[in-house]
């Protein structure tokens, strides 16, 4: 995988690009571009990489990625044979309405959202996501002018909503093409072998580096150690299994790459601040308490 910088091929006269992506698995590797990107997952699940953030994603995941922030979505390996990965993706330049539009009085909240997106932000309120989903689906059918107005309306809603930052404040995007090619190799290897044990030397060999050079390189590029990344990835898989299956904690620990149940419990508690058993209970308690979301919503500004 060689992609690092992606040039968004805009149609002459278009202010933004809104598309529905439908693939067997999301194919874009780790990449960045100067356009902002709003992504809503319609179908599929897996792991989302935004800067130095590594989190699970599932249907209705809604994220705004800022300019030049490296990102990609990696599907679960157990994607159903007859299933598809679908998302609505809107890409736009922050000056799509003019260089100074969002600095004007009345638009400062959107300007603040755009600045916050440099770390990547996600939106978790179910009512907000349902409203935005409806508007994004309609956006796909609009002409250029109405599409710009539709995006402005969406940004207005999101700018008034609660956000969750994704990348850490210390994260600085300073990848080059070689970095992205190397990191894609690392990510793919880890994902293909996440439920088995492997040595750091195996990863270092992939990049023709010594173990010490690889560990230094990975920490410098991702702002975390390689073992932190491994544990976050394994615990992310474990969380999905806790939510989606009724397998025992011991089975989930083994399938997530841990040969020791005590070590799995220790790593899970370190990252999530609660035990796997309590995580599963709290998730189901929360899911059962969620209110029904109306099929069609209108935003009262």
Automatic annotation (TrEMBL):
Pfam families in the record: HTH_18
Keywords: DNA-binding, Transcription, Transcription regulation
Domain of life: Bacteria
InterPro entries hit by this protein: Homeodomain-like_sf (IPR009057), HTH_AraC (IPR018060), HTH_AraC-typ_CS (IPR018062), RmlC-like_jellyroll (IPR014710), RmlC_Cupin_sf (IPR011051)
SUPFAM superfamilies: Homeodomain-like, RmlC-like cupins
Any one GO MF annotation of this record: sequence-specific DNA binding
Residue ranges annotated for the HTH araC/xylS-type domain, each copy included: 184-282
Keyword DNA-binding: yes
Protein name: Transcriptional regulator, AraC family
């Amino acid at each position: 995988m060689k992609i690092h910088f992606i040039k968004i091929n805009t149609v002459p006269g278009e202010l933004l690009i809104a598309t529905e992506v439908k693939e067997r698995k999301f194919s874009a590797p780790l990449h960045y571009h100067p356009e902002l990107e709003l992504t809503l997952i319609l179908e599929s699940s897996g792991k989302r990489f935004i800067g130095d953030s590594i989190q699970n994603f599932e249907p209705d995941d809604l994220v705004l990625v800022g300019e030049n922030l490296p990102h990609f979505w990696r599907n679960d390996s157990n994607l159903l044979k007859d299933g598809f990965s679908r998302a609505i993706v809107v890409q736009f330049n922050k000056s799509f309405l003019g260089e100074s539009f969002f600095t004007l009085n009345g638009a400062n909240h959107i300007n603040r959202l755009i600045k916050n997106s440099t770390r990547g932000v996600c939106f978790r309120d179910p009512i907000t996501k349902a409203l935005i989903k409806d508007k994004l689906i309609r956006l796909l059918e609009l002409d250029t002018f109405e599409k710009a107005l539709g995006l402005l309306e969406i940004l207005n809603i999101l700018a008034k909503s609660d956000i969750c930052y994704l990348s850490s404040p210390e994260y600085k995007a300073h990848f080059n093409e070689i970095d992205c090619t190397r990191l894609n190799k690392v990510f793919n290897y880890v994902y293909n072998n996440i439920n088995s044990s492997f040595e750091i030397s195996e990863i270092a060999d992939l990049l023709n580096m010594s173990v010490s050079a690889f560990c230094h390189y990975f920490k410098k590029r991702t702002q975390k150690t390689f073992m932190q990344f491994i544990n976050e990835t394994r615990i992310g898989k474990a969380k999905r299994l806790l939510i989606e299956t009724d397998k025992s904690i011991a089975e989930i620990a083994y399938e997530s790459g841990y040969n020791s149940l005590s070590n799995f419990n220790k790593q899970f508690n370190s990252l999530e601040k609660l035990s796997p058993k309590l995580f599963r209970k709290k998730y189901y308690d929360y899911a059962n308490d969620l209110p029904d979301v109306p099929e069609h919503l209108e935003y009262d500004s």
